[in-house]
């Protein structure tokens, strides 16, 4: 057991919308990166997306699945 008392953060799945091909991407992000900006490549159209994960922390449902 660690003397610092800190536990390694778990991974979290975030949903990112590709504005180029309109695909919703499920991105697994380590917990220690949740306040960073990360680059994600869309697996459908290969577009690069810069995503701020700060706003993704509390949205477990993909935006495409939400009723407007």
UniProtKB/TrEMBL annotation:
Transmembrane segments: none annotated. GO terms for cellular component: nucleus. One of its GO terms (biological process) is abaxial cell fate specification. InterPro entries: YABBY, YABBY_N. Residues 9-62 form the YABBY N-terminal domain. This is YABBY N-terminal domain-containing protein. It comes from Aegilops tauschii subsp. strangulata.
